[in-house]
Amino acid sequence: xxxxxxxxxxxxxxxxxxxxxSAVATLVLAxxxxxxxxxxxxxxxxxxxxxxxILAAIFLGITGISILIANRWYGDALYVPIFFGAVxxxxxxKFVLFLVVLFVLRGQDWIHPLVFFIAVVVSxxxxxxxxxxxxxxxxxxxxxxxxxxxxxxxxxxxAADAAEQPHxxxxxxxKKPSLGS
Length: 181
Fold this sequence. Notes:
- Keywords: Membrane, Transmembrane, Transmembrane helix.
- It comes from Microbacterium keratanolyticum.
- Residues 157-181 are annotated as: Disordered.
- The chain crosses the membrane at residues 20-40, 46-70, 82-104, 110-134.
- The protein has helices at residues 11-70, 79-105, 113-137, 151-164, 169-172.
- By secondary structure, the chain is mostly helical.
- The protein has one domain.
- Helix 1 packs across helix 2 and helix 1 (11-70) crosses helix 3.
- The two termini are 50 Å apart.
């Protein structure tokens, strides 16, 4: 696509749909996790399940949101560096956030480690299933964001080819290779 294109990137609707379904799944997991957490480990289980589910939702949402933000510059000459900068920045943010959360939550009385771990793992697996389902049901072309040449483009190319054609017979005949050098 050229820099004057106004059509959206084809991954944008897919990412939006994924984020929407992930938000719905997070709400369902929060309710189920809270009930199971309280049942299995009391109040620490409740807080651990909610913390694990929210943490997984935040981490998984950062990537989708960073790509959606970077897609706003699609068609710009700096789109590729902006895209990779946004995605890499999201990964670095998640890494730093993970370390901070790890140090803050370590040894807390209100955290039940097993419930927290299970909540994080289940949240990640549910989100991965959502990603796969949304992607497989989306109609994403094999070659995306491509425009076909217009009649004007073809006419201009034809005129350019005609201008480059040789004008004499000698110029158009291929040169024969010499046998002896």
